[in-house]
Amino acid sequence: MERVRVVLQASDPVSHAGLASLLRSGAELNLLRAGDRTGGRALVFACDRFGPETVAALRRAAAEIGLPVVLVINEIAEAELLTAIECRVVAILHRSAVTADRLIRTVIAAANGGGVMPPNMVGELLKHIERLQREVLAPNGLNVSGLTTREIDVLRLMADGLDTNEIAGQLCYSERTVKNVIHGLTHRLNLRNRSHAVAYALRAGMI
């Protein structure tokens, strides 16, 4: 099995040395040398707290290398969670809870598209999503997928193999309305055609 290539960035040399030692202890990982980000699949980023300097550094890293981030930190407030996620943070480990096994498992999860959050932050994230749905999306006829109820209904019937006329009959729309719905969502999501739209929606769990 190919080892997961990891980039490490820390706010101080002591943290860097300690985390480097933990990461090197895992046979599943390959810690890249400083300045080498070739083929990296995850970034371990260590700092004391989630202040403006941390946010700026994470945003630079997101723009330059775009890797999922495992954030090792002493202190982060629940209110700062969304900003962290915007900076590509997919996992958060408090320094006091870091062990070699936990860090290695978290890095592998991040590299494979997963995420690891403290339980209290998972709850806070769910609250943010619920608030977003209630205050922003629902008033505009959207849901967390970014699609309208009408678009989801049309996609589901397309996935069932119905043509434009049949979809219009099922939903009591005109054929022109159905065509406009399909054109709107394919254009907005940069999809090639109806089959691509259905495949995209299925993979993303929208329908």
How do the strands of the widest beta sheet line up side by side? Answer: 2-1-3-4-5
Assign the CATH superfamily of the largest domain: Response regulator
Label the overall shape. Answer: elongated
Largest sheet: 5 strands, parallel
In which range does the helix fraction lie?
40-55%
> Per DSSP, what share of the residues sits in E-state strands of 2 or more residues?
5-15%
Element layout with pairings:
Elements: E1 4-10, H1 13-24, E2 29-31, E3 42-49, H2 52-64, E4 69-75, H3 81-86, E5 89-94, H4 100-111, H5 119-137, H6 149-159, H7 164-171, H8 175-188, H9 194-203
Parallel strand pairs: 1-2, 1-3, 3-4, 4-5
Helix pairs in contact: 6-8, 6-9, 7-8
What distinguishing features does this structure have?
single chain; alpha/beta; Rossmann fold; Arc Repressor Mutant, subunit A; 2 domains; five-stranded parallel sheet; elongated
Quick summary:
The protein has 207 residues and is an alpha/beta fold. It folds into two domains: 117 residues, Rossmann fold; 64 residues, Orthogonal Bundle (Arc Repressor Mutant, subunit A). The protein contains nine helices and five strands, in the order βαββαβαβαααααα.
Q: Any overview of this molecule?
A:
By secondary structure, the chain is of the alpha/beta class. It has two domains: 4-120, Rossmann fold; 139-202, Arc Repressor Mutant, subunit A, CATH 1.10.10. It is built from nine helices and five strands; from the N terminus they run E-H-E-E-H-E-H-E-H-H-H-H-H-H. The chain has a five-stranded parallel β-sheet. The protein starts with a strand and ends with a helix.
